[in-house]
């Protein structure tokens, strides 16, 4: 059975779109070569669309909707696949996270999920009104197993000082300690963006960029919900935001010194 034939239409809207592309093509008696000719793409590209490896551009889907008289079905599925948010269970994104060779993380308002203690994660989910908090916390901590894999990905983190300052006082010492411990790993670069860095693109929100053998994609994260980012233009915006924010960040050494200073202050407050 091919990858396209094994796709589950219930696996998500992108999978549903890929399945419909294959079914409609066959129902209309067209080969992948013929579809490619119609939409100005080669047959390998059409094959990748049907296998869910790549997402077809909306312009191609509009042509196929007219050709196959679908009433705009393919364009509609594309629209909802691109704009609808995904639940914070991270079922889809966790698969890409496991495959990633490089992960870039931008944390603005919250400590990123990959760096959270169980207590911080629990507080974030509770604040967001999420049901089954303990299950969500467990899933979030399971994602962090990538740090201890035999061949872990390279992880580059830009962490806003604002997110650190917003850590609840009762959770601060443990969360700061975890950040310091993670920053000491050879495959992690943690850099803090100080409050006095001024306005920058990274302030627009928390997000991840994953580089995998199959593709590059992003994930915009909040405590409750998130959105998978696969469109080229949107990915470019995330990449530009990350790179420009990187220019405002402290060095890894200065970041570690800053975290150590914050831990000492926190210890003094607890004394």
TrEMBL record:
UniProt xrefs under SUPFAM superfamilies: lambda repressor-like DNA-binding domains (SSF47413)
Transmembrane segments: none
Residues of the HTH cro/C1-type domain: 21-64
Any matching Pfam family: DUF5753
Gene Ontology MF: a single term: DNA binding
CDD domains per the UniProt record, alphabetical: HTH_XRE
Gene3D superfamilies: lambda repressor-like DNA-binding domains (1.10.260.40)
Name of the protein described by the UniProt record: HTH cro/C1-type domain-containing protein
Organism: Thermomonospora umbrina
């Amino acid at each position: 059975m091919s990858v396209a034939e094994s796709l589950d239409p219930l696996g998500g809207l992108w999978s549903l779109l890929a399945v419909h592309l294959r079914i409609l093509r066959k129902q209309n008696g067209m080969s992948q070569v013929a579809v490619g000719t119609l939409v100005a793409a080669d047959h390998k590209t059409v094959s990748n669309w049907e296998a869910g490896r790549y997402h077809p551009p909306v312009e191609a889907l509009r042509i196929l909707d007219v050709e196959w008289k679908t009433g705009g079905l393919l364009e509609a599925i594309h629209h909802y696949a691109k704009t609808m948010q995904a639940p914070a269970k991270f079922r889809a994104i966790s698969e890409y996270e496991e495959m990633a060779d490089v992960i870039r993380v931008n944390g603005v308002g919250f400590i990123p999920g990959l760096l959270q203690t169980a207590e911080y994660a629990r507080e974030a989910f509770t604040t967001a009104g999420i049901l089954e908090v303990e299950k969500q916390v467990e899933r979030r901590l399971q994602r962090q197993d990538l740090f201890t894999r035999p061949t872990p990905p390279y992880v580059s983190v830009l962490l806003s000082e604002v997110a650190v300052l917003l850590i609840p006082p009762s959770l601060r010492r443990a969360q700061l300690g975890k950040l310091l411990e993670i920053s000491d790993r050879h495959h992690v670069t943690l850099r803090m963006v100080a409050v006095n860095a001024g306005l920058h693109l990274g302030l627009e929100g928390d997000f991840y960029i994953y580089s995998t053998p199959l593709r590059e994609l992003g994930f915009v994260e909040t405590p409750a919900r998130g959105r998978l980012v696969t469109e080229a233009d949107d990915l470019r915006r995330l990449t530009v935001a990350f790179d420009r924010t990187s220019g405002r960040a402290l060095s890894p050494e200065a970041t570690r010194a800053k975290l150590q200073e914050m831990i000492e202050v926190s210890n003094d407050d607890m004394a």
